[in-house]
Sequence to fold (348 residues):
Amino acid sequence: MEKTVDAFSMTLEQWQDMAVGVWKEPRFRADQVCSWIYGKKVFDPSLMSNLPKTLRERMCGLIRPPAQITETVSRDREARKYLWEMADGKRVESVLLDHGEHTTACVSTQVGCPLACAFCATGQSGYERDLTAGEIVAQFIAVEHRLNKDVNNLVFMGMGEPLLNEANLFKSIRILSGVGTRGLGARHITVSTAGIADGIRDLADFEVPVRLSVSLHAPNDALRNRLMPLNRRIPLATLVDSMRHYKKRTGERITIEYVLIEKVNDDPQLAFEMAALLDGLGVYVNLIPYNTSAAAPSGAAGAFRRPSDGRIKAFCAALSELSIEFEIRRSKGADIAAACGQLKSRNS
Ligand code: SAH
Fold:
């Protein structure tokens, strides 16, 4: 029976239930197993030397990390992209960003994405399915296993919309932050959303105080409808309401992701509109100059370009004038299609 469970989707309490109820072993066996998986990144039970031999045999084949298909390293060695294959053959990518003293893993929550934002490569390939909690957890732990060291930060900014796979997302966060499992600090975990307002409200009530990042990209509905079809269903007024609720409830500063696309959303006037829209929220803005992607279709998205440095500067000047804190995200991994919006399911 153990062979049918998804081991990475189990909380410490579930491991304990299995230890006591199924294995007829003491509860602390669960702690031992979790410290092998989450501490030492050892997945092969035969190597778990402090477990009784019979238990090791019984656990054979229980813990199955996704198969690594490829690992691609950027020229500057600061970004690594992993392509994993799940048990049903579906593939997703994760990215590891190395900032020197700290590292960040960017993991996927869905195979493909249903949102089809005009500028994003992931949406072009359509949506296939949600990842399970275990498949989300396993990406992070498998990256650590590959690197042979702990990763400090986790961002849900890979393929898919995290808040459209909320139950599995929340469960994966419980496991990765849980003391006794991976124990990653909540402050080191960021959920990014294209604007699922109900999900943002749920996140405000979620017991693990993770950080929130909102992919805004446009400060008015006319422009946002064009770039992000989701906005037709969840317009800015609804989105911003949920952000105000989150801010009030948690006191946490929200990060805004804003991909700068030449002559589409880089007019400094839009910075003023954004300031008015988000007035009083005290956001932090991450500007991401548009990453050209091989997967972008030749139609509308094909015309998208990274703004000139002069235009980026002008947008920044407007934000400074408005006293909005921001940074320009230096794009890592663009040469291996590992940068924002470049992840896809296929290895092509
Ligand atoms: N669906 C979630 C999680 C994906 S995060 C969300 O939208 O937030 C991936 C980030 O990269 C998002 O902010 C997305 O808008 C941005 N992005 C997508 N395509 C991009 C591109 N070509 N260049 C730069 N950023 C892009």
